[in-house]
Sequence to fold (187 residues):
Amino acid sequence: MKNIILASTSPRRRELLTLAGVKFEVLALNVDESVPEGTSPEDAVEMTARKKAMAIAERHGRSIVIGADTVVVCDGKILGKPKSKKEAVEMLKMLSGREHLVMTGVCIAHGGETEIYHVVTKVKFYELSNKDINDYVNTGEPMDKAGAYGIQGRGCVLVESIEGDYFNIVGLPISSLCRKLKKLENK
Fold:
């Protein structure tokens, strides 16, 4: 069994890997997550996932290293983690009653090679009142979540429908990732 390292401190990603029965350790470094202006959301999540994975893979080349990055995209604009309650309110107002995309980029680094891909899930929110938004923001939950909501938490009541991989919205497309890890194990 090859050693697997998750290059992320996300408790949600750790939980999903554990749920899937993957044995792994967590090692993460702070990396510059900025991307050049004009970069598409798809390229942005893949670039950031690669940066996270490679920061660890450079020191642990014999291990399988997983890097991931999740963003919410509305009207072509990337919505990352809000920096303030005001910004969280603005994001949720933008998403209210509308469809948006959740994108997760994944990079699997092993033995000097990388496999990079992304998964997209469509999410539609119910129409939200100002009270709905303020009540949710005041829980504190939106503050460390891309797009200012967590579908796996209290944010579940905001979501009218999804099309695609639910776990991608949580932060890791676990099914596709596990299939790719299995192929690596069999090499």
